[in-house]
């Protein structure tokens, strides 16, 4: 249990992996987690917005402001 | 009463146990509490989203941003 | 008037007593106040959710995030 | 004008007096102001909730979290 | 332009003058600005609430919590 | 690119010029930018509120609390 | 992976490039990213507001307050 006792450790393990990010406005983005900080600002690459499981638009690199994020999970 | 005088002590006692997490948007997640911090950011493993007591979707590991959380309780 | 000049003193006097906690989403929880901190995060034991004065569900130990709380009062 | 140049001075002058506290959710509480802090967390004694000028429920001592408060005024 | 380069300087010039304060909940208060702080908490004396330009209720001294305020303007 | 690498530099260049300020509640104010701070609290002089491009009311000097502001732009 | 491990690095790479900024109120602005800070306050030049992919209004230079921003992405 030594490893991963802090929430940001879990984000660190997801770095460069494909993650789902869900926002307070119910939007869902999927992309490769390139960066995050203590405010949970995140940068996704090869990102797309999804709706009902289907791709809504392709976005390339996106910066998402942390205070809009509810959930981050490896896909 | 010495032990458990601070709220985070209660979260610490729930570590690695199955907890229910309820969010401001009324969503409910259940999973093993792997990590938390002073912002109440939490990481759940073997997580699932529930609705009306029934599983809605399986999610694996999820990071939940603290400011969206209302309640955490051992299942 | 020396004693109880700060709001947290009042919470301290309610420690281990049965309190009502009302949230911004209009939910009401009742339980024994085990812990609180300066963010007004609280832990209740033998907690239950109430609606219209009647018990809605039994919850055991719950952690409530401070920024969702409006009011705390000894029952 | 030396005295009362800061807002908390006005709250201090209202200490132990009957005040009306109005919240963001439009609820109105009346009670004796026993304590407050820089977050405007307040404790009222002999408190009651009012609606349309009439008493809705008696509450005894209540702790109100500052970030839900809009207005405090001596009755 | 040396004088009044910071927003709080403008509030300072309005001290003891009659100001209109508009809140996020669309309420409008008018009174003599007695005190303010960096959070924009303000105290008004001889205050009244207005609606559609007409007095709705007389309030005496009121403390308004800064984070509910949108606009302050000398009447 | 040395000059104007920080957002507040852009506000500084707009000082004493006529700016449009748009708020979270969709209100729009126009006036001469006299002062601002790091919270983006701003003071406008010769201010007016606009609606649909037309003047709704004249306001003189106004203090706008930063956390209600979405956008500031030279007219 | 050394470069771009922090979210603000991604914004820095987008400096002087055309970016899309989406706000919590669903508004969308496009412009050249001239400046940003740790609050994610941003300044866009040659900015325009878009709706449904079409230009709604031309705005020149705009300052956008960080706490209203959800997403920033190179166009």
Could you explain the architecture of this structure?
Seven copies of one chain form a homoheptamer. Chain A is mainly beta and 75 residues long. The first copy, chain A, is built from one helix and five strands; from the N terminus they run αβββββ. Chain A has one helix spanning 7-13; strands spanning 18-23, 28-36, 42-51, 54-64, 69-74. The mean pLDDT of chain A is 93. Chain B binds chain C through residues 1, 4-11, 14, 24, 26, 40, 66-67, 69-74, and chain C through 15-16, 23, 25, 27, 34-37, 41-43, 47, 59-65, 67-68.
How are the secondary structure elements laid out?
Seven copies of one chain form a homoheptamer.
Chain A: H1 7-13, E1 18-23, E2 28-36, E3 42-51, E4 54-64, E5 69-74
Would you summarize the structure shown here?
The structure is a homoheptamer of 75-residue chains. By secondary structure, chain A is mostly beta strands.
Instruction: Please give the largest β-sheet of chain A.
Output: 5 strands, antiparallel
Number of helices of chain A: 1
| Share of residues in helices of chain A | under 10%
Oligomer: homoheptamer
Main features:
homoheptamer; 75 residues; mainly beta; 5 strands
């Amino acid at each position: 249990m030594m490893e991963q006792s802090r929430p940001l450790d879990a984000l660190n393990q997801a770095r460069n992996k494909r993650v789902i990010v869900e926002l307070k406005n119910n939007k869902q983005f999927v992309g490769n987690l390139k960066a995050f900080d203590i405010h949970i600002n995140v940068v996704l690459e090869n990102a797309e917005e999804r709706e009902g499981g289907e791709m809504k638009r392709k976005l390339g690199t996106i910066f998402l402001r942390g205070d809009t994020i509810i959930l981050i999970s490896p896909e």
